[in-house]
Amino acid sequence: MLAITPHGDADHGTRPLLIVHGLFGSARNWGVIARNLAKHRPVLTVDLRNHGASAWKDGHTYPDMAEDLAQVIDAHGGTADVLGHSMGGKAAMWLALTQPDMVARLIVADIAPVAYTHTQMKYLQAMKSLDLDALTSRSDADRALRPEIPELAIRAFLLQSLDIPERRWRLNLDALEADMAAIMDFPETANTYDGPTLFLAGGASDYIQPDHRPAMKALFPTHRLVRIPGANHWLHAEKPRDFEAAVTVWLDATDGQAA
User: Fold this and answer.
1) Average pLDDT, the chain
2) With left for phi above 0 and alpha for psi between -120 and 50, is residue 247 left, alpha or beta?
3) Tens digit of pLDDT for each residue in 108-163?
4) Which residues are catalytic?
5) What architecture is the 3-116+180-253 domain classified under in CATH?
6) Domain ranges within the chain, ordered by starting residue
7) How many CB atoms lie within 10 A of CB 255?
8) Quick check: helix, strand or coil at residue 97?
9) pTM of the predicted model as reported, rounded to 2 decimal places
10) In a 3-state reduction of DSSP, which class is residue 73?
């Protein structure tokens, strides 16, 4: 079972909103948003396998991650609304496509059901090259990563997964490296998910392109696409209140449509 953090009143029989983070992230990245959304409904955040406090395992494919999410949902009533960002969005999409009865409504944040040609290996290799034994503080780690990762926001995000006292990453970097090609890809399927689906895209992000729309329409025929102006790929971190508002408005509007 994945590490789970509940937010709000976990009223038995009330369908939760399950939030799934992206690559190199964790449930803690979603703490404030989860607490705000939990004012209106029970919310669960999880650490995916090989991330945060969850177990390290060899496989890190979308079928692997979707099955982990299915176990969480099964333990919390058998159905959930699911919100996933980036890699977590792909895992959520695969769960909806393969076990649709478990997903009442689907929200996908800034990712499409397609293969991407870019890679996150630059960041992974920078983390692996860090001399953990030489670190005495997070600022030491920040300085060491700066030559390879000049962007302050990205360094700050990655360093949330560094355990300084234990001299270890809370990320299974070897497993993520081994399955990076699968993470960038998306499995082929003839399945469709007909439930209410919202794609939330960053207005300044290039992760959802016009040529991705046919795949989105084929797999999620009822979907709606909404863009958050001025936001990049980490739209929930850059525009958190706009993100929360978009999610809340859509959930309220589709409440009667959910399975």
Assistant:
1) 95
2) alpha
3) 999 999 999 988 999 999 999 999 999 999 999 999 999 999 999 889 999 999 99
4) 86, 174, 233
5) 3-Layer(aba) Sandwich (3.40)
6) 3-116+180-253, 121-177
7) 13
8) helix
9) 0.95
10) helix
